[in-house]
Structure formats: structure tokens, C-alpha cells
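Q: Given only this backbone (262 positions), what sequence would you predict?
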């Protein structure tokens, strides 16, 4: 890792078209025992895209995200990240995981570390940056999520929305090529959801590539470049938000959207 934060360079310069998608899932299969959870899932995420995944509970959304950084192993198919097939045994998965940020429903902050410590930990331990440099990058990441003033706060003193913004700072501090979000606002008090979505919207404007599993239909509709509807372990359909929300092709998509908007 260089001294400057590459995320900033990427944000400052216009996004050059990449020759291949950042992330591509090809005919991905996953089962737990006899239970088929993902069936022939194909998905491409282009650089700078914000893709929202929606679908009923149990449709395989979290499993798909966990396969993207190989927290789960596929039973078949490929996960191509930045041109590398992560299902190959030759890939150094620890190195790859540094380039894939992950934000969970339960923020998973370390309670014994302040906000700054949570964000700088991987920069020190994993990226092996000197303390000062790690702290400078971490403060910068906290500023990007509007949490610079809370750098010295303990997680327990922060609201859920603030904790989730610290978790997002932790994910982006490592300058990942993509950030995966698994229902980042589902555990939040409704009044706090907006602040987290605003941060995600800003990241998208900075050019961050994001794959977001969410129940926030309005966010998906307003901010996503593309929306993917999953059910029963399959991608049922995907498209630009306006098309998917107003003229879904599949009756399952229509039924889901109707149910969520009630
Ligand atoms: N580690 C696991 N072992 C067994 N079954 C699992 C495991 N993880 C998920 N599942 C099952 O896989 C299905 C899809 O789960 P999940 O990916 O969490 O769906 P979603 O995120 O869309 O709600 C569910 O039926 C769930 O019970
Ligand atoms: Mg889930």
C-alpha cells in the first residue's frame, strides 16, 4: 500500500473504463447438505456501479455476498474478482479480502476499541502501516462518513447509525475495490436509517463500487444503478430501478415489490 490513500486518487480522477467487471459471479451454485441455496447465479458488477439486491428472506442474498469474498465456498461456478477466479486454490484469499470491504447488519465493532481504533486496526495489523499513517487514513475515512468528531468515542456511546457509519469507515479505509453491504440499515431505529443511506449515497458519488443487499426500496429506486431481484436462490430479474419497480417482467418480482411497499 502506498502512503496516499488510493481511494482518493480514484475519486479525484474520472473513472477510466475497466476492461472487465470488478466482480463477476458465473453459474454460482451453493447448497448446505441437500438444501440448494443458490442455483446458477450470474451477476456482473462494473466499476463505479451501485447494485442493490432485493428479495424475500431466505432467498440466498447473504449467502451470495459471503461467496463474493469466499466466507463461504461455492459448490460450483466461479467468482471472478478483479480478473482473478477466487474459487481457484491458487488464489491468496487473505490478500483478496483486503480489497473487498464488508458491512454487516450488526455493525460488529470491537467494543474495547474507540471509533478510531476500530477503523485503524486493519490498516496497522493487515496493511502493516505505521501507526501515524494508519491513524491519518482512519481519520480521513471517519471524516468521509461524517464521524471525524467522534474518533475518540467508544462504540457503546454511539447511536446505531453512528456505529454503522464507523463500520463503513472501517470498510473504506482499506481502499477496497468494492464494498459489500448486507442489510446495513435493518438493525437501525427508523430515525437513524437516513444518515447511513446518505453516507452510502455519497460514497457512490465518490465512485465507490457497491453491492448492497437491502430492504430499503426507496433507496434502491433512487440511488441504485441496477436492481437485482432474487428468489429461491435464483436471480429472477434485474434492470434499471425504474424499469424493475414500475414494469417488472416476472410476477414474483411484482408481488415482492407490492408487498414491500405496503
Ligand atoms: N451456514 C448455513 N448452513 C445451513 N443453511 C444455511 C446456512 N446459511 C444459510 N443457510 C440457509 O440458506 C438459505 C438462504 O439464506 P440466506 O443467504 O441467509 O438468505 P437471505 O439473506 O436472502 O435471507 C436459508 O434457507 C438459510 O436457512
Ligand atoms: Mg440475509
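A: Predicted residues:
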Amino acid at each position: 500500500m502506498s502512503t496516499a490513500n488510493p481511494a482518493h486518487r480514484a475519486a479525484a480522477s474520472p473513472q477510466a473504463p475497466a476492461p472487465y467487471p470488478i466482480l463477476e459471479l458465473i453459474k454460482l451454485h451453493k447448497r448446505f447438505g441437500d438444501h440448494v441455496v443458490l442455483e446458477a447465479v450470474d451477476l456482473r458488477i462494473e466499476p463505479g456501479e451501485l447494485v442493490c439486491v432485493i428479495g424475500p428472506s431466505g432467498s440466498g442474498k447473504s449467502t451470495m455476498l459471503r461467496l463474493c469474498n469466499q466466507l463461504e465456498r461455492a459448490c460450483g461456478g466461479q467468482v471472478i474478482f478483479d480478473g482473478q477466479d477466487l474459487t481457484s486454490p491458487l488464489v491468496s484469499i487473505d490478500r483478496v479480502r483486503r480489497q473487498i470491504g464488508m458491512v454487516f447488519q450488526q455493525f460488529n465493532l470491537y467494543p474495547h476499541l474507540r471509533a478510531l481504533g476500530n477503523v485503524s486496526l486493519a490498516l496497522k495489523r493487515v496493511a502493516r502501516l505505521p501507526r501515524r499513517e494508519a491513524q491519518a487514513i482512519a481519520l480521513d475515512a471517519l471524516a468521509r462518513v461524517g464521524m471525524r468528531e467522534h474518533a475518540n468515542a467508544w462504540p457503546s456511546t454511539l447511536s446505531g447509525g453512528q456505529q454503522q457509519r464507523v463500520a463503513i469507515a472501517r470498510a473504506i479505509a482499506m481502499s477496497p475495490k468494492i464494498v459489500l453491504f448486507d442489510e446495513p440499515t435493518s438493525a437501525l431505529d427508523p430515525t437513524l436509517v437516513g444518515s447511513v443511506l446518505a453516507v452510502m449515497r455519497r460514497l457512490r458519488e465518490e465512485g465507490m463500487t457497491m453491492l448492497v443487499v437491502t430492504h430499503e426500496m426507496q433507496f434502491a429506486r433512487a440511488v441504485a444503478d441496477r436492481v437485482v431481484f432474487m428468489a429461491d436462490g435464483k436471480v429472477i430479474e434485474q434492470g434499471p430501478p425504474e424499469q424493475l419497480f414500475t414494469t417488472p417482467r416476472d410476477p414474483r418480482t411484482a408481488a415482492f415489490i407490492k408487498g414491500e411497499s405496503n
